[in-house]
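pinned: reference chain
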Amino acid sequence: MRPALEIRGLDALRRRFTALGTMKDLGPALRAEAEAVADTARETLRERDPASRLAQSIKIIELEPGDHPAFAVGTDEPAGFFLEFGTARRRAFPWLVPAWHARLPAVNHAVRKVIAAALKASAKV
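pinned: its structure tokens
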């Protein structure tokens, strides 16, 4: 008995999803954007205080090395939290969230560019 429904193209679809799951170019692209967020945050802090220790303490940490890269930008300095969100006695001076929001379109563009390249490369296979 023949199947009533035949689905074609599953192999091509599987190859495309596999290519998306192992995108090697995504890590460097995300790292570059994390560096840009960190630079923007440092600039914001240095506008307020040119010798800012907080600006010098900003670092980037790779959260998940491998096929699914993720990066965190921040500081271990407790003052960073209190400056970002404020206290009962001092108003907030956001320095990290605005840096992230300013770079968000560029981050989205970089990710879309890598995904499009991976899809294009998988279509050629």
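why pinned: The CA atoms of residues 19 and 77 lie 39 Å apart. The chain has a mean pLDDT of 84.
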